[in-house]
Design goal:
The protein is of the alpha+beta class. Helices cover about 45% and strands about 10% of the residues. It is built from 14 helices and five strands. The protein has a five-stranded antiparallel sheet with strand order 2-1-5-4-3. Helix 1 packs antiparallel against helix 5 (about 85-95), helix 9 (about 155-160) crosses helix 11 and helix 12 (about 195-205) crosses helix 13 (about 210-215).
């Protein structure tokens, strides 16, 4: 338990990081513990290497000379230091003290009626609109039918990392996951205090070790969209070209279009899918409090 007599935010963050790394043994993180060690627990350079940051950057964090670590860096630190939920919250509080005193307003994301009508009029092309945190804000009937194998169609990253259907549906799930994480990192870098992104990253970090590993990497650019190869449980293999269009009237939103080559087996598969319609299951599009 922390009280009001604790040191200021920057100094407190350094003390917090030092105390937590001293509690982690090298063996706990897969490092050799042989040889004489001058410090208990992990060394600074070991924490830096495991978290994917430079030793000089980590040193600045402990010395109070780095004032704005990114969400990605904080999540990496929490993973390396094996922080439980209470300590994870304290890490974020110390690194970003203003988020507790002044809550950022909820970011309301709505799809304009004419855009919803537009994608609903496309009967041969799966299409959907995603928000800044890749929440599914609107889908057309063919997109619903395409993703019918997923139990909960609400967020691209949650579908990829938390739904077992992704391992079968995507013929290259690793590439799809890398691209989704890189996209989210770009958004997080632009809006580091965004409540919805913090909630999503926190949830995925706790529930998916694969997400934690990918999030700890640094993506300098988002890999380009390409042909997506999928395996649908009803219509079989599909190859669809993936296009993402920025919606200028709604910053942060993207229109996603999946197209099959004309007169191809994939076009025939989409035509068959259209006759089947969407499954009768709950479709929660955008469950986040900050995205309603």
């Amino acid at each position: 338990m922390y009280d009001d007599t604790r040191p200021g935010p920057v100094e407190g963050l350094g003390q917090f990081l030092r105390s937590r790394r001293e509690r982690v043994s090298p063996a706990e993180v897969g490092l050799s513990g042989s040889g004489r060690r001058r410090v208990p627990g992990l060394r600074r350079d070991e924490v830096a290497t495991l978290a994917g940051v430079s030793p000089s950057y980590y040193s600045r964090l402990e010395q109070g000379r780095e004032l704005s670590p990114s969400v990605r860096v904080l999540e990496s630190m929490a993973r390396v230091l094996r922080l439980q939920e209470d300590d994870r919250r304290e890490l974020f509080r110390l690194a970003r003290p203003t988020t507790r005193r002044t809550k950022s307003p909820s970011r309301v994301e709505r799809v304009r009626p004419h855009l919803r009508q537009l994608i609903e009029s496309w009967t041969r092309t799966p299409a959907f609109i995603v928000g800044h945190a890749q929440d599914l804000l609107a889908t057309n009937a063919l997109a619903d039918a395409l993703y019918r194998d997923f139990a909960q169609r609400d967020n691209v990253l949650r579908m990829l990392f938390l739904d077992p259907a992704a391992k079968v549906f995507y013929r290259s799930p690793e590439r799809a996951k890398q691209r989704a994480v890189a996209d989210l990192q770009q958004t997080a870098a632009r809006t580091p205090q965004d409540r919805r992104i913090l909630e999503l990253v926190g949830e995925l970090s706790v529930r998916s070790g694969e997400f934690r590993s990918l999030w700890a990497r640094e993506y300098h650019r988002v890999p380009p969209y390409e042909v997506k190869r999928m395996r649908h449980s009803v219509v079989g293999d599909l190859e669809l070209r993936h296009e993402a269009l920025t919606i200028r009237s709604a910053p942060g939103q993207q229109l996603i279009i999946l197209q099959a080559e004309p007169d191809s087996p994939s076009a025939d598969g989409l035509a068959l899918l259209d006759t089947l319609g969407a499954p009768e299951v709950p479709h929660q599009q955008n469950p986040a409090p900050g995205a309603r």
